[in-house]
Design goal:
By secondary structure, the chain is mainly alpha-helical. 73% of the residues lie in helices and 0% in strands. It has 9 helices and no strands. Helix 4 runs antiparallel to helix 5, helix 5 packs antiparallel against helix 6 and helix 5 packs across helix 8. 25% of the residues are buried. Its main location: cytoplasm.
Length: 165
Amino acid sequence: NEDRERAWSASRETKLETIPNCEACAKPTPEEVQGWAQSFDKLMKSPAGRNVFREFLRTEYSEENMLFWLACEELKTECNKHTIDEKARMIYEDYISILSPKEVSLDSRVREVINRKMQEPSSHTFDDAQLQIYTLMHRDSYPRFLNSAIYKSLLQTVSHSSSES
């Protein structure tokens, strides 16, 4: 049984490593993994938490929500006007454009605001949209994530491995 769990754990770690553009992060502690159930903010502030949640979102065909949120976070760190323009256009094409296969679900008011702001993009062009997607993930996907096999088995694995040490 322990060998099976070790093999499962190893295959799980490799799966996370093969997620394209997955954030590099340390293995989460049992306390950290348990904390994700206490608050969506804790989950989203943790690189390991975002990776696991992103893996779950992929199973629900809504990974673009996390990818959009991460792209917005990255844009906020930019200071160079030319880079901001470039990244804003890419985010728009990838996640806002109705022609994109990775389009995120936004209401018409937020879309209008973005269309206006795209005339002169800034690092905060997508703030309203990012908040709307964050809220959507929090209300919609997060409760299902906490009940998912992905989260439950990770919780079991980290609890089990910490009790061995």
